[in-house]
Amino acid sequence: MPATSPAYSQDAALPYIGRFAPTPSGYLHFGSLLAALASYLDAHHRQGTWLVRMEDLDLPRNKRGAAEHILATLAAFGMHPQGEVWVQSERQLLYQQQIQALIDQGHAYYCDCSRSDLSPYQGIYPGTCRDRNLPPAKDHAVRIRTDNSVDGHYSFIDRLQGHYSQHLPSELGDFVIRRRDGIVAYQLAVVMDDIAQGVTDVVRGADLLDSTPRQLHLYALLGVRPPRYLHTPLVVRQQGEKLSKRLGSKPLDPALASVTLYKALAALYQAPPAELHGAPPAEQLAWGAAHWDPSRLPVTREILQDQLPAV
Ligand code: GLU
Question: Which residues bind ATP (predicted)?
């Protein structure tokens, strides 16, 4: 298996399919709007298709009404998905079947390690259950082997962040694709769905940069070429603190769409002209898509909120 799979970079002619894949654990706020907008503009700049997928597998974290708020707010901002909105909780059976296939192929195994068993290893799974051949059990996790690739290095060239690489066996070890509580892990579901939807380009926040090597490993196991990646900087209030729903960032008010969209274009360093201020969302989006240039973004994973370009 190749350690670095060729991405789509050689195939600029391939139809572009991008997506925004929110988790409905909170309402749409300014930070998630930036992720949505970057993926939308990148897709539309390329005359591609832009999809929305609801990543609601972590049921205990879902917030009532959040999925509806996200979709309604995107619509108020003029961002309409060009296809049905997929909902991951409706696809559970497919994920379970894929997990079973990975187990049958010897790529994955059951693991009954508890959090306290693993605490001495600082997040790097030591392979405890890899050769134990534990029988299926509802309350066991399922882990994917990372010792079975050529050299364990997973590298890619991010369109903004540049070269990024992880040596999975030593930096992470075998990782979970089904949690002990039975919930299918994000890493597997995102890869399966991006494959099923034919996604060629993933544009998302840089907090997911370090998930990408795990996802590349899954692409390699599933025998599918990975997409291109663009990880945009996260806006944070302080170093290490995400402008996120978890921190209770304010839900966006659809009535303020025009003003907020202008701010978002500016926060993505697209320097929208003053005339666009307060223009209807459709007009701002059309300008944004025509002029989209992600290389204007600073090459960094985090930007402090108060260092964003002034509007
Ligand atoms: N659902 C993930 C999140 O909201 C994003 C998935 C992705 O874009 O790959 O953090």
Answer: 245
Domains and CATH numbers, the chain: 17-307 (3.40.50.620)
Among 19, 20, 23, which residue has the most ligand 1 atoms within 8 Å of its CB, making it the best to mutate? 23
Interval 286-303: pLDDT, tens: 999 999 999 999 999 999
Q: Look up the pTM and report it.
A: 0.94
Alpha carbon distances (Å) from 246 to 98, 241, 242, 251, 300: 31, 10, 8, 11, 22
41 exposed, middle or buried (CB, 10 Å; 0-12, 13-18, 19+)? buried
Our answer on whether the CB atom of 32 is closer than 6 Å to any ligand 1 atom is no
User: Of 49-63, 183-197, 247-261, which gets the smallest average pLDDT?
Assistant: 247-261
